[in-house]
Amino acid sequence: MQEHDTSWVRTEMALAEPAPAGVRGPLAWVRQNLVGSVGDTILTILGIIIVAWVLPQVINWAFINAQWTGPDRSVCATVAQGGIQPDGWSGACWAFVNAKFGQFMFGTYPVEERWRPILVAVLLVALLVPMLIPRVPRKGLNAILLFLVLPVVSFFLLSGGAFGLTQVETSRWGGLLVTLSLSFVGIVVSLPLGTVLALGRRSKMPIVKMLCVIFIEFVRGIPLITVLFFASVMLPLFLPAGVTFDKFLRALIGVSLFAAAYMAEVIRGGLQAIPKGQYEGADSLGLGYWQKMGLIVLPQALKLVIPAIVNTFIGMFKDTSLVLIISIFDLLGVVKQNLSDANWATPQTAKSGLVFAAFVFWLFCFGMSRYSMYTERRLDTGYKR
Amino acid sequence: MASQEILREEPSGSFVNDPKIRSLFFQTLVVVLLFGSVWWIVQNVIDNLQRLHIASGFGFLKGRAGFDISDTPIAYTSDSTYGRAIIVGLINTIIVAVAGIITATIIGFVIGVGRLSQNWLIRKICTVYVEIFRNIPPLLVIFFWYSGVLAVLPAPRDSFHLPFGSYLNQRGFYFPRTVWGEGSWLMLVAFVVALAMAWFVAHKARQRQMATGQQFPVFWTSVALIVGLPLLAFVLGGMPLTFDFPKQSTFNLTGGFQIKPEFLSLYLALSCYTAAFIAEIVRAGIRGVSKGQTEAAAALGLRSSPILRLVVVPQAMRIVIPPMTSQYLNLTKNSSLAIAIGYPDLTATAGTVLNQTGQAVEGVLIMMIAYLILSLVTSAVMNVVNARMALVER
Prior knowledge:
Chain A is 65% helix and 0% strand. Chain A contains 15 helices and no strands. The relative contact order of chain B is 0.12.
């Protein structure tokens, strides 16, 4: 064999060259993401102007100029308005939120009994957190405790009148307590009710199907306020004379029915996405209707629509604020009610109180949406269509 | 062998296991239960109404209303009937819903496209907007505009002066009212004629393009027609337009056209809130058009603007329209929150009527039916749009 001269072949690997300056590093990032073209540059300048105009104002208002503590309106009013602040001052009146914090959380729940809602909140967190962390075992027991035992225990704890606890009328409940209990009960009731309605809508029995369709489409076509009006003024007429039931309970019924109709449509979407083979496979195994749905179809269907279900929960959580129209005071209602307190009437009070309420609502809703995104990623088994 | 013997037997299951009979039985049960409870409820309602001495029926609509309404798009005084009060409310609902839908769509498109921008800063600003407004209740947004922003504006004496002789103060937004003089009907006629001509041009241009492939600048021709013809009529009619400017007196502004803060805050809040959802829908729609479509269009030699207009947007619209419809419906339904700040929409006026007359059943029924009809009309319109946009398959 002829010997080849291979001196032109490299004997060692060439080291990788650093990337050209134009495609890496902070400068290139700026070029690509901020000043890619003339239009882009204009947009960036516009954006910088917006941020430079808004952000300092917001920070100044919310933190630097804000008043954190104080006995009454004088700390949040300018001299001209009868306060101590210099004229032209503009800052958040967190002192107002600070002073009313107990009310914002519990409404007019008696102060010496407030350990009860706090205990319920602790129980809720203690049961909810392990439920949300996928690694914690015994999900079945946890779910039973959370969705069946907790509502009963909370009911007795909150309303009292048994086991030596003094009774607290629901008219004295308020604030975040009402917001959370309305939405929690709404969630616990609307999910199974919505599932039944969705199954009914896809049922082969014409009368059942028709009834479900009428209910779902009717409720989805009207605003929640009308449903609440219905629950507060019409429901009492439906009952025999002398039978009355609590306004809070009526609001609960209204919110739950409303949420159930939306939930039904979401779950129907999931049911439709399950291939026919799954239904037929269950039939061929000899499973009955409820076995087929409970063991084969619903577990897959519900998993598919978890994000949409959580979206419905978020919508419902936000919608609970509407109960203020039938004078039940949830978080927003209590804040709104306190805005008219003459002791705290300043131009900054309304903004501060509402921003606080917005922040609380935002925290819950944002948390829920992030958790649903996390679950979506975790459960993504690739079957999704 | 055993299995064959079983097969030969008559189906031995009792009729209890027959699915048809079961379904029949179950449905009968549902119907009986339903009629039973409806009968019970009706019985109770009749009893209760008799006990409270409330006459049922819709006769009360002819009674004198006796309450004032702050925004009246049609003639209304406290001497008008309850029926008219409810109609005023319905018109107010429609006004705020239509205005909100238009504004929310525009803001939503801008924000949605902004979230897909190449520009990092714009993308982040739009994301912050969406994440804020999606996660707080609409009622709170309304309150924020109403008591947080508009209520702390200066008193009429120190109103903000804005361009074109408009003013902004606690009592709302004032701008010059247009007063049309004699001969302005000519402009209206010209406008209608221009619309018809624009439609005709578009029709002819499409036919010609189908036949010969030649394009015709339909858009600019239509703009010229729709703007030009009424303008011509305006000049020919001797410019029959004057403005009634708002004038500042000691305590108030007089003249001009006033938009009350109730309407303004409801309209702004609904627009901002719904825009966040529309932005997400638009973003999903544009991302739903596969990249291959853009690349194929570029390979055909189209530039970026025709790619967007002819390839991406028509396909994105198909994804966007159905969820957009439900957002429009949501906005219409959310307009019922007007009651919280005292804007006299349908829920507010019907609620007042309900409280004054005690006709709970009829009042709630009127509200429900009115909203159902509004929802159905919106869905019907959007279905027509959707049918035009939908993929025509062979």
